[in-house]
Design brief:
single chain; alpha/beta; 6-stranded parallel beta sheet; about 35% helix; elongated
Length: about 220
């Protein structure tokens, strides 16, 4: 469900995990431009790619849509080169920078289907600091919607899946976080059916975070929406 605007909601966790594209940075124009050119070049179904690729590793999308005899590795690298040369128009979502700065650095991780180079370029273009803990495409054997990335991020931060919240925007990422057993907040309006029953926010403009100690002396983070 959407968070009621008239009521402040709180969520207490030990760590906060973020997707990147569509969640921390708005890269929609670049993504659509690159996939449009790539689809026309190889005669792929652009509309279907847009409908199903968001939040999914590029390699998995290429493998799904490329002809059976195609060199998936070569095509994925070609697509990656196209993406890495374009950053114009990439911006941070409202409130993202402030929220990231307010969180303890060792309680934050980013889990993205982009590779580390592309993730770094897009975070820099958006003016956001790259988190110390990040699980990028190279770090997993199974991309979203598999939960591997989020489970790995929680392990790196030393927390249990039940102790974190994930901010996600895409059906594949939402499915990944939920499969990992993590509380999930949906950012934006692109979650589709996967967002049903979850808290939803347009951006981070009204999200604040405060770190305190619980009764056992362990740090907790209270998020207010």
């Amino acid at each position: 469900m959407s968070l009621p605007t008239e009521t402040v909601k709180t969520l207490t966790v030990r760590a906060v995990l973020f997707d990147m594209d569509g969640t921390l940075v708005d890269s929609t124009a670049i993504v659509e431009q690159v996939w449009g050119e790539f689809s026309r070049r190889y005669g792929l179904d652009f509309e279907e790619i847009l409908r199903t690729s968001h939040g999914v590793q590029a390699r998995d999308t290429v493998r799904r849509f490329a002809p059976a005899d195609a060199d998936v590795d070569a095509l994925t690298e070609e697509l990656g080169e196209m993406e890495r040369t374009r950053t114009d128009g990439i911006i941070a979502l409202p409130g993202a920078e402030q929220l990231l700065r307010s969180l303890p650095a060792d309680a934050v991780a980013m889990v993205t289907s982009a590779d580390r180079v592309l993730a770094g370029l897009r975070m820099h273009a958006a003016g956001l600091e790259f988190p110390a803990t990040a699980v990028t495409a190279e770090a997993v054997t199974r991309g979203k919607p598999d939960p591997e990335g989020y489970l790995k991020a929680a392990a790196l931060l030393g927390v249990e899946p039940s102790e974190v919240v994930v901010f996600e925007d895409a059906p594949a990422g939402i499915a990944s976080a939920r499969a990992a057993g993590m509380a999930t907040v949906v950012v934006g309006e692109n979650g589709g059916d996967a967002a049903e029953g979850l808290w939803q926010i347009p951006d981070y403009s009204s999200v604040t975070a405060t770190a305190t100690l619980d009764g056992s002396g362990r740090r907790v983070i209270e998020l207010r929406f």
